[in-house]
Design goal:
Chitinase A, domain 3; 2 domains; 36% helix; elongated
């Protein structure tokens, strides 16, 4: 009887070991972002997802540990209930720009009113008014509460019509300029607040496995 139980225990342990090795081998075999996305779709029970970590925006302990890894490396975090795998799929330095804006809504004001208002805003800024205060006073969206600060942005973060006008290298720091998107009735005063900065980003596959 004792011998049979021992054989059963060894068999179960070996099976569990092989299963664990197979699972980690699958994760190790994933090399590209497309492969990671396909794996997530095919294994929905594992609560998988691909996360982007930005060194400027993310300052958690996990983010710091993942940034220390090379591309293709992984880290495992264990609890009594589950194991979570983080695998670095991609690692790059991405050009970001920092902008502030004042939004004027063409659905509420005529183009004549908007142009006069924008000219007045630019003159006030050039005469020493802080852009932050001007944005809080004039901007017609919720970003006014942040003084118009858009933060660090890169290609793909913004509406494509807006991006096409503001994410280019022709503007210098402290340049103030206007942007019109008449198809959407969006009108802006833009201030470039920081020079282009290359910020490290990693794409990470996160997979959570229940511990039985």
């Amino acid at each position: 009887m004792l011998k049979n139980l021992l054989v059963l225990f060894i068999s179960l342990s070996t099976s569990l070991c092989f299963s664990q090795n197979d699972f980690e081998s699958e994760i190790d075999s994933i090399q590209t972002l497309d492969e990671a996305k396909i794996y997530v779709q095919k294994n929905k029970s594992l609560k998988g997802k691909v996360i982007t970590f930005n060194k400027e925006k993310h300052h958690t302990k996990i983010a710091d540990e993942l940034f220390s890894l090379g591309k293709g490396s992984k880290k495992v975090y264990k609890t009594d209930m589950e194991k979570t795998y983080y695998k670095v799929i991609d690692k790059n330095e991405i050009p970001y720009q920092k902008l502030s804006y004042i939004f004027l809504d063409g659905k509420e004001k005529s183009i004549e009113e908007i142009n006069m208002l924008r000219q007045n805003i630019i003159v006030k800024y050039q005469n020493g008014f802080r852009f932050e205060d001007l944005a809080k006073h004039y901007s017609m969206d919720t970003n006014a509460n942040r003084g118009g600060d858009l933060g660090w942005v890169t290609q793909g973060d913004l509406h494509p019509d807006f991006e096409a006008h503001v994410l280019n290298t022709s503007h210098e720091v402290n340049d103030i300029f206007t942007v019109d998107i008449p198809e959407q009735q969006w009108y802006y005063v833009i201030l470039k607040t920081e020079d282009t900065k290359y910020i490290e980003e990693i794409k990470v596959l996160k997979i959570t496995e229940s511990v039985k």
